[in-house]
Write a structure and sequence with these properties.
This protein is α+β, with helices and mostly antiparallel strands and 388 residues long. It has three domains: 87 residues, 3-Layer(aba) Sandwich (Rossmann fold); 70 residues, Dna Ligase, domain 1 (2-Layer Sandwich), CATH 3.30.1490; 194 residues, D-amino Acid Aminotransferase, Chain A, domain 1, CATH 3.30.470. It is 31% helix and 27% strand. The chain contains 13 helices and 17 strands. Helix 2 crosses helix 11. The longest helix has 18 residues. The termini are far apart. It binds adenosine-5'-diphosphate. Adenosine-5'-diphosphate binds next to strand 6, strand 8 and strand 14.
């Protein structure tokens, strides 16, 4: 039996459990807290922060290879482990251009992939911001992003003018929350946001899942409509982007790629996540092979599975925390699970906080109709966020 080490014990690791069992794989997890979702399914847990490389060295003694469900690792500290024979999948050199949002933009630019205009911004540049914006040909509104450790919109801000930008930087600096390095980029007035999950094997085979439409509110993913209503040209363009990216990275495993579609039909890459991704949760219930199984297949050198849909379409809605509470929300979950062909996934987090991803629901559809899918999402959200 193969033992796979997973750095990170959140819901993405939790959702690997079914596939691991099917494939006869044991998961050994490195995660900081005994309350983390994947503790319940791990055959063994190393309790330590994600960036603790000494703990990862210990994790390596318990498994055949190590993969990631969380990219907030310290690559520098991990790299001596490679010399000692620790096997990471994807390899550290694959993660290296992706973990910092500015480095990632530079990498995408070098590949000549379409991206928003961008520039690096250091706290020390605050005096010369106007000049910097001018040089980078950026006009307000702009998007300010912490280069590292941002997630679910934390660390990403749309800023309307120079005063708001300065204020935001100052409050960052005083909070010391995201260090002092930022990415500043063009605000894209997108018509829609799209995403694609792609997997690559060590032999270089690539499979892509159906392209989806993602809907964000306050920079957090709220719902995913499957498949996206897009032209063949846009589909082909996105698939080509996925191939270029995964091949140039020599990636092994599943990657999530987020994109913008502009009103004039242009595709731009927003971000690539070197792991399974929220936009691919529908694959658990709506595809022949889930993104979690696909990831384990790729990193364990098993043949890649069929990514095709098993239904005409699907809608996935995130169940986000909307209060600070310790609550299992059983009644609401039961109500949602009564929706025909719904599959409710609950991550078992001990505390709810506003915006925290507590679970998700996927509803399978016999016919694909975007308006109908959006209406189902609305029913779920009114059951979830409505008054009990
Ligand atoms: P995170 O890594 O926290 O998910 P993202 O960079 O993916 O942050 O941004 C989160 C959301 O913010 C995006 O899904 C999108 O809705 C919005 N956003 C990010 N960058 C831009 C941009 N350049 N133009 C317009 N909206 C953006």
């Amino acid at each position: 039996m193969k033992r796979v080490g997973v750095i990170g014990g959140g819901q993405l690791a939790l959702m690997m459990a079914g596939a691991a069992q099917k494939l006869g794989i044991q998961l050994v997890v490195q995660t900081p807290s005994p309350n983390d979702p994947a503790i319940t399914i791990a055959s063994e847990t190393i309790f330590a922060p994600i960036e603790d490389a000494a703990a990862t060295a210990k994790l390596a003694t318990r498994c055949d290879l190590i993969t990631f469900e969380n990219e907030f690792v310290n690559l520098e500290a991990l790299s001596p482990l490679v010399a000692q024979g620790v096997f990471f999948r994807p390899g550290l050199q694959v993660l290296s251009p992706l973990l910092d949002k500015y480095d990632q933009r530079c990498y995408l630019k070098q590949l000549d992939l379409p991206i928003p205009k961008f520039v690096a911004l250091d706290w020390n540049d605050i005096g010369g911001i106007e000049e910097l914006l001018l040089q980078a040909q950026l006009q307000f509104p702009v998007v300010l992003k912490a280069r590292r450790h941002g997630y679910d919109g934390q660390g990403t801000f749309i800023v309307q003018d120079i005063d708001a930008l300065k204020q935001r930087l100052e409050s960052y600096f005083t909070q010391q929350k995201f260090q002092s390095l930022f990415l500043l980029e063009e605000f894209i007035p997108f018509e829609r946001e799209l995403a694609v999950i792609a997997a690559r094997s060590s032999a270089g085979e690539i499979v892509t899942y159906p392209i989806v439409e993602t809907q964000q509110e306050l920079q957090v993913c709220r719902r995913v409509l499957v498949p996206a209503d897009i032209s063949r040209t846009v589909t082909a363009e996105i698939e080509a982007i996925a191939h270029t990216l995964l091949n140039s990275l020599q990636a092994v495993g599943v990657f999530g790629i987020e994109l913008f579609l502009t009103p004039d039909g242009k595709v731009l890459v927003n971000e690539i996540a070197p792991r399974t991704h929220n936009s691919g949760h529908f694959t658990l219930d709506a595809c022949q092979t889930s993104q979690f199984e696909q990831h384990l297949r790729a990193v364990c050198d098993l043949p890649l599975g069929n990514p095709a849909l098993t239904c005409e379409g699907a809608v996935m809605v995130n169940l986000l925390g909307y209060e600070c509470a310790e609550n299992e929300y059983l009644v609401k979950r039961q109500q949602i699970s009564r929706i025909p062909r719904s599959h409710v996934h609950w991550y078992g987090k001990s505390e709810s906080r506003p915006g925290r991803k507590l679970g998700h629901v996927t509803v399978l559809l016999d016919t694909w109709n975007r308006t109908e899918a959006a209406a189902i999402a609305q029913i779920i959200e009114s059951l979830w966020y409505g008054v009990e």
